[in-house]
Specification:
This protein has two domains: about 325 residues, Outer membrane efflux proteins (OEP), CATH 1.20.1600; about 140 residues, no CATH class. The protein is an alpha+beta fold and about 550 residues long. Strand 4 and strand 5 form a beta hairpin. Helix 6 packs antiparallel against helix 9. It is about 60% helix and about 15% strand. It contains 13 helices and eight strands. The chain has a six-stranded antiparallel beta sheet with strand order 2-3-4-5-7-8, with no helix packed on it. The chain has a two-stranded parallel sheet with strand order 1-6.
C-alpha cells in the first residue's frame, strides 16, 4: 500500500506540475521566436517570402503597415480615385481650344456656247451660235483656325481664316489667277437651353463628384482592410494560444495514461480505466491536430493580408505576434458620442452625400434641357482679293498680283467688312424627352436621398451593435477568467483526490477537459474583445486615426 500511494503521489504531481513546466517551455520558445531580428523579416520580405524556415516577430502596427504596402485589395482600390481623376480631366478637355485646318484642290472643264462668251473672246456675234468654248477652272482652297467652348456659360467661339486661289479661263473672271481670303471671328451664346447647365459643364461637375466619391470609397476599403488585418492578427494570437492549450492537455493526458498503466500493472485499477485514459489521449490528439491546423490556416491568412503576392506555395515563414491580447483597456462606451464620430468620419456617408449632390446637378441639367432653344449667333470679319489682270481687260481697282496682298486691308478702314447677327429658336412639340428627363432625375435624386437615410440607419445599428458587443466582450473576459480559476481549482482538487485514492483517472480527465474548455473560453473572450474594439473603431470611422494611418500616403500606387 505505501508503494502504491508513493507511485500515485509521484504521477499526480507530474500531472499537476506539467502545465507549469509547459508554460515555462512556451515562454522560452516565445522568447526565442521574438528574438528574431527585424532584419530577418526584411530579408524574408525582400526574398519574396520564399521557402525558408524562419520565425518573424511581428507587432500589430507593423502588420498593418506591411498590409497597406503589399495587400492586393488595397492596391486594386488605389486605382479607382486615380481613374476618376483622369475622367474629371477628360471632362475638362471639352473646353480645350481646337486647332483645325483643311485644304482641297479641284480642276474642271466646262463646255459653254453663248453669245456673250464669244463676244468677250473677240468673235463676231453672228458666229457665236455655232461656237463652243471650254472653260477651265482650277481652284485651291484652304481653311484654318481655332474654335472652342467657354466654360460655364455654354458659349462657343471661333476664329477662321479662308484662302482661295482660282485660275479660270472664263471671260467673267478679270483676274488670272484670282486670290481671295477671309478672316472671320464668330461666336454663339445660348440664352435658355444650354445656358450654364449644358452637357459639357454638367459632365465637369458630375465627374468632380465622382472623383471625390472614389476617394471616400478608397478610404472605406482601406478601413475594411485595416480591420481585417487587425482581426486576422488577433485570430493568429488566439489560435496559437489554443494550440498551446491543446499541447498541454495532450501532455497531461499522456502523463495520466502512464500513471494509470502503472496502477494497472500493480493491480490497483482495472483495464477499463486504462482504456479510458487511452481514449482521453486519443481525444486530445485529435484536438491538437485541429488546433494546429487552425493555427497554420491563421498564419496563411495573416501572411496573405500582410504580404500579398510575397506569400508563395513553398513559403515556410512563421509569424510570431508580439502584441498580447491580455493587454487591454476597459472602455466606457457612449453611444451618442460614438454616433457623432461616425457621422463625421464614416466615408460611406460622405460618398452617399456626394451621390446626392451629383443627382442634384443632373436634375438642374434635366430642367435646363426642358427649355426651348434660343441662341444668338454672331460673326465679324474681313474679305480681301488680289490677282493678275488678264490681257486686254482694264482693272477697276489697283490690286496686288500675289496672294499675300489679299490681307493688306484687313482690320483697316479700307477693308471689306462683313458681319452678321442671327437668332436661332427651336422647341420640340410635346417635348417628351425634356419632361420625362426631369421626372427621371427627380426620382434618381429621391432614391439617392433614401439610400443616404438607409445608410445612416445602418450605421446607427452598426454603432449600437459594436458598442454592445464590446461591452459584452469586456464582461465575457471577466466571466471567463472566473470560470478558468474555478476549473483550475476543481482540477487540482480532483488530482489530490486521485492521489488519496478517492477518485479515478476518468474523473481527473473530466476535470482536465473542463479546465481546457475554460482556458479556451478565456482565449476566445480575449479575441472577441479585440475584434469588438476593431469593429467599434470601424463603426465610428476612427480606425485609421487610431493607427496613425494617413490616407494620402496610403493612396499612392506601389
Amino acid at each position: 500500500m505505501p508503494s502504491r500511494l508513493l507511485r500515485c503521489t509521484a504521477l499526480t504531481a507530474l500531472v499537476l506540475l506539467l502545465p507549469i513546466r509547459l508554460e515555462a517551455d512556451d515562454m522560452e520558445a516565445e522568447t526565442d521566436d521574438t528574438s528574431v531580428s527585424t532584419s530577418a523579416a526584411g530579408s524574408a520580405a525582400s526574398a519574396g517570402m520564399s521557402a525558408s524556415s524562419q520565425a518573424l516577430a511581428l507587432s500589430l502596427a507593423e502588420a498593418i503597415r506591411l498590409g497597406i504596402e503589399h495587400n492586393l485589395n488595397v492596391e486594386v482600390e488605389r486605382h479607382a480615385p486615380l481613374i476618376a481623376y483622369e475622367d474629371s480631366q477628360v471632362a475638362w478637355g471639352a473646353y480645350d481650344p481646337e486647332l483645325f485646318a483643311d485644304y482641297q484642290h479641284s480642276s474642271s472643264e466646262t463646255p459653254t456656247a453663248n453669245v456673250v462668251q464669244s463676244f468677250f473672246a473677240g468673235g463676231a456675234p453672228a458666229a457665236a451660235a455655232n461656237q463652243v468654248t471650254i472653260i477651265r477652272d482650277r481652284i485651291g482652297e484652304g481653311n484654318s483656325g481655332i474654335r472652342g467652348l467657354v466654360p460655364w456659360l455654354g458659349a462657343s467661339y471661333g476664329l477662321a481664316y479662308n484662302g482661295k486661289s482660282t485660275e479660270s479661263t472664263s471671260a467673267f473672271n478679270a483676274l488670272f489667277p484670282e486670290y481671295r481670303s477671309t478672316l472671320l471671328a464668330s461666336g454663339s451664346l445660348p440664352l435658355l437651353k444650354g445656358l450654364v447647365w449644358n452637357q459639357a459643364w454638367t459632365q465637369v461637375k458630375t465627374s468632380a463628384y465622382f472623383h471625390e466619391s472614389s476617394q471616400e470609397n478608397f478610404k472605406t476599403a482601406l478601413m475594411d482592410e485595416v480591420r481585417d488585418i487587425e482581426t486576422g492578427y488577433w485570430a493568429l494570437v488566439a489560435t496559437r494560444e489554443q494550440e498551446r492549450v491543446a499541447i498541454k492537455s495532450l501532455e497531461a493526458s499522456r502523463a495520466l495514461l502512464d500513471q494509470t498503466e502503472t496502477q494497472y500493472e500493480v493491480g490497483v485499477v482495472s483495464r477499463v480505466e486504462v482504456v479510458e485514459a487511452e481514449a482521453g489521449v486519443a481525444e486530445r490528439d485529435v484536438n491538437l491536430i485541429r488546433a494546429s491546423n487552425a493555427y497554420r490556416a491563421a498564419q496563411d491568412r495573416l501572411l496573405d493580408l500582410v504580404y500579398g503576392t510575397r506569400l508563395q506555395a513553398d513559403t515556410q515563414v512563421r509569424v510570431n505576434p508580439t502584441d498580447k491580447p491580455e493587454d487591454y483597456i476597459a472602455y466606457e462606451i457612449d453611444n451618442d458620442e460614438a454616433m457623432r464620430k461616425a457621422e463625421s468620419n464614416r466615408p460611406e456617408l460622405a460618398a452617399a452625400r456626394k451621390e446626392v449632390d451629383r443627382n442634384k446637378i443632373n436634375l438642374k441639367f434635366a430642367k435646363n434641357q426642358r427649355l426651348p432653344q434660343l441662341d444668338i449667333e454672331g460673326a465679324y470679319g474681313y474679305q480681301g482679293i488680289a490677282g493678275t489682270e488678264k490681257r486686254g481687260v482694264a482693272p477697276f481697282v489697283a490690286l496686288g498680283d500675289d496672294y499675300y496682298a489679299t490681307d493688306d486691308d484687313f482690320l483697316s478702314d479700307d477693308g471689306a467688312l462683313q458681319w452678321s447677327v442671327k437668332g436661332v429658336f427651336s422647341y420640340p412639340l410635346g417635348n417628351r424627352a425634356g419632361v420625362h428627363g426631369v421626372s427621371r432625375s427627380e426620382l434618381e435624386l429621391r432614391r439617392s436621398k433614401t439610400r443616404l437615410t438607409q445608410l445612416y440607419q445602418s450605421i446607427v445599428l452598426d454603432v449600437r451593435n459594436s458598442a454592445r458587443n464590446l461591452d459584452s466582450a469586456q464582461q465575457g473576459i471577466e466571466a471567463a477568467e472566473r470560470r478558468r480559476i474555478a476549473a483550475e481549482e476543481q482540477f487540482r482538487a480532483e488530482s489530490i483526490r486521485l492521489e488519496q485514492g478517492e477518485s479515478t483517472p476518468f474523473d481527473v480527465l473530466q476535470r482536465e477537459r473542463d479546465l481546457v474548455d475554460a482556458e479556451s473560453q478565456k482565449i476566445n473572450a480575449l479575441q472577441v474583445y479585440r475584434d469588438s474594439v476593431a469593429s467599434l473603431h470601424r463603426a465610428q470611422g476612427t480606425i485609421l486615426q487610431n493607427h496613425n494611418i494617413s490616407v494620402e500616403d496610403a493612396s499612392s500606387l506601389r
